[in-house]
């Protein structure tokens, strides 16, 4: 092995660098992990709980050294530097379920990275002032369960805004349905609300992506189906189906320069969850996760942003679990 390494190194064995001094910040206590994001912290305040004391890692690595861009400029978590921003500048990104939660956070994240975002939802999409340049996020009223209408809306969008280069299939509905009530109509409805539109939009977007030189599709699934939760059989079937859809599309579309991946979020503190947060729920969540922090919608949005970026250029057919370390 040493002779082989010597040949690879041009006849000289590479020398090992002595380990540097141990950084005293490298093992911050779990209770000092940062509660990031206004939503969870705001909810904790209303519960009479204050976020734990911060070990500030804003703009830095886990050992306290600041992250820097190519010019040596220190970066913060909201400062993505030039690489990502340049990548998505002018790119047409379509996000479904964009009226709230993960969908809205994802639309905002891509807009901040320079994209032209088409934000689809059956509910009104309202983006707070300052979260995007006016006109950069284009709200589109759309019932995703009406596939014929979806096809017409998609055709209008690409005629007006160009080919979709990034598709984020986020929309979905979780509904507890006892097996006795899971008749054929209810089953079809759950597939329609969670799975069918993902396949339909992938089919519609793929030709334009291929003609433009490639693209990325990110499908939102869930960790719920991995945990054997009760009365969610239809929802679990749809969300597990998204993983199968993702892998099948990755094989079919890879040769056209289109990558297809999925994200499986865990317990995410969206607006709907924040409205009913309790001390017990927070304590249970911290106990379940390896990382005792609350997951924000923005955490999932950042994962989608990365999967769509050139930084993930050789990643396809995969499911990225973002759950703080549970499954």
Q: Overview of this structure, please?
A:
With 327 residues, the protein is of the alpha/beta class. It has 2 domains: 32-68, no CATH class; 80-322, Rossmann fold, CATH 3.40.50. The protein has helices spanning 2-8, 38-46, 81-88, 101-112, 147-161, 184-211, 233-253, 271-274, 279-288, 297-308, and strands at 92-96, 116-121, 137-141, 166-169, 215-220, 258-265, 268-269, 295-296, 319-322. The strands form 2 sheets. The chain has a 7-stranded parallel sheet, with helices on both faces. Strands 7-8 form a two-stranded parallel ribbon. Strand 1 (92-96), helix 4 and strand 2 form a beta-alpha-beta unit. Helix 6 (184-211) runs parallel beside helix 7.
Name the features.
327 residues, alpha/beta, Rossmann fold, 2 domains, seven-stranded parallel sheet, two-stranded parallel ribbon, 9 strands, 13% strand, SDR family oxidoreductase, NAD(P)-bd_dom_sf, SDR_fam, SDR
- CATH class (first level) name of the largest domain: Alpha Beta
How big a fraction of the residues is strand? Answer: 5-15%
Structural classification: alpha/beta
How many strand units? 9
- Helical proportion? 25-40%
């Amino acid at each position: 092995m040493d002779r082989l390494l010597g040949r690879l190194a041009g006849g000289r064995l590479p020398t090992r660098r002595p380990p540097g001094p141990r950084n005293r910040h490298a093992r911050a206590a779990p209770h000092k992990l940062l509660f990031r994001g206004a939503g969870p912290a705001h909810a904790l305040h209303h519960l009479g709980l204050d976020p734990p004391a911060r070990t500030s890692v804003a703009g830095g690595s886990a050992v306290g050294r600041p992250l820097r861009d190519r010019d040596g400029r220190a970066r913060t978590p909201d400062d993505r530097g030039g690489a990502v921003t340049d990548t998505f500048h002018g790119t047409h990104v379509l996000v479904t379920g964009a009226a709230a939660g993960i969908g809205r956070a994802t639309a905002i994240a891509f807009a901040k990275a320079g994209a032209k975002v088409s934000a689809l939802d059956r509910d009104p999409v309202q983006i707070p002032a300052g979260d995007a340049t006016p006109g950069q996020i284009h709200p589109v009223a759309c019932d995703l369960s009406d596939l014929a209408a979806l096809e017409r809306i998609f055709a209008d969008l690409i005629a007006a805004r160009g080919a979709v280069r990034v598709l984020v299939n986020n929309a979905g509905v979780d509904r507890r349905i006892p097996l006795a009530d899971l008749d054929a109509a209810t089953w079809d409805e759950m597939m329609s609300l969670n799975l069918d539109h993902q396949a339909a939009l992938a089919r519609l977007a793929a030709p334009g992506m291929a003609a433009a030189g490639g693209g990325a599709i990110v499908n939102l699934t869930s960790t719920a189906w991995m945990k054997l939760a009760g009365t969610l059989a239809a929802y679990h079937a749809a969300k597990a189906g998204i993983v199968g859809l993702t892998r099948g599309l990755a094989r079919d579309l890879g040769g056209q320069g289109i990558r297809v991946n999925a994200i499986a979020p865990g317990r995410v503190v969206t607006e709907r969850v924040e409205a009913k947060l309790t001390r017990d729920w927070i304590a249970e969540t911290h106990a379940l996760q390896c990382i005792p922090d609350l997951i924000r919608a923005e955490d999932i949005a950042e994962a989608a942003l990365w999967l769509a970026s050139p930084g993930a250029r050789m990643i396809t057919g995969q499911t990225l679990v973002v759950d703080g370390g549970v499954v």
